[in-house]
Amino acid sequence: MRRVLITHTDLDGLASGALLLRRFGSLDRVFFAQPQHLHSRLAGVPNGSTVYITDLGINRTTLSKVKEQVRRVLESGGEVYWFDHHVWEYPWIEDFVKLGVNLHVNRDVCTAWIVYKYLGWDEPDDLARVACSVDLWVMDDWRGNYLSRYVGYAGGSAWKERVLKKLARFNGVIDAEIAEVVEKAITKELSVYSKAIKKARLRECNGIKVVYYLKDNEEHLTSYVANALIARYEADVAVICRRGSVSLRSRGVDVREVAAAMGGGGHPRAAGAWLRPDLIRRITYLIGLRRLYADWCVDRVMEHICHSKNTHNTGV
Hints:
By secondary structure, this protein is an alpha/beta fold. It folds into two domains: 3-174, Rossmann fold; 191-307, Diaminopimelate Epimerase, Chain A, domain 1 (Roll). The chain has helices at residues 11-24, 38-43, 63-75, 90-99, 111-119, 126-135, 143-152, 157-168, 176-199, 222-233, 255-261, 279-286, 290-307; strands at 3-7, 29-32, 50-54, 79-84, 102-105, 201-205, 208-214, 237-242, 245-250, 265-266, 270-274. The strands form two sheets. A six-stranded mixed sheet has the order 6-7-8-9-11-10, with helices on both faces. A five-stranded parallel sheet has the order 2-1-3-4-5, with helices on both faces. Helix 10 (222-233) links the parallel strand 7 (208-214) and strand 8. Helix 1 runs parallel beside helix 5 and helix 12 packs across helix 13. It is globular. The model has no long low-confidence stretch (mean pLDDT 92).
């Protein structure tokens, strides 16, 4: 049986995959993905495989393509196990279950916890607990800040595969290797905070204060930067723009509704969407007129914040 893992790139995704790796001992192929790329990762799965999808929700814009690939895997004799804690609309659940997907969705916990419970282990649940601490933003386990920075220290599949194997062996102890990487990550992170706070700008609509910032190419953890900006500017929403995508973080506004209107998805307090800049915007970015690109990016977000009936500041 060929086992294939497709998982998200953050701590919850890597922890979920690590629990499966620990259970099976090996995986034949591993794909790391963002939700908007799920269909393309599925396209690389050989027929007849047993596929485990973890911590990846559905984007409306790619829903039909994901269904098509899932159907192909199932009709070729394969199996699909899907574990997630993002927002799923009932018709989506119904459609995938009818296709034959073994679907496990629970919005109240992180995905690593869903996988842990599915596996039915009696051993200590350190990895799942740590992942939930950060991913649900409850911060009730200090090790979560270490592991999330360890996971996010570098991009690329090679680093993620190394981390996946490391987390599969995690016994609850922050060892010297993790501590050393985290020390380097925090040093880099502090310089990013300083730059982000200086470069961030503000918008406001319907009493909702939005702080926004254009992320450069350096690696950093979006949620930590967004939280720093929200705290510094006493904002309700942080918009982190990138070349081709946008991330939203909130302390009282349902940003999942905003992301969904833009073709993305996520959680009420943490969501994102894919951006499709036209030629002029792409040129603007490439020649270094980044502020104009950031303004265009936040304009797309503000359109939905200002006009959506379902988006409002609920407070905390």
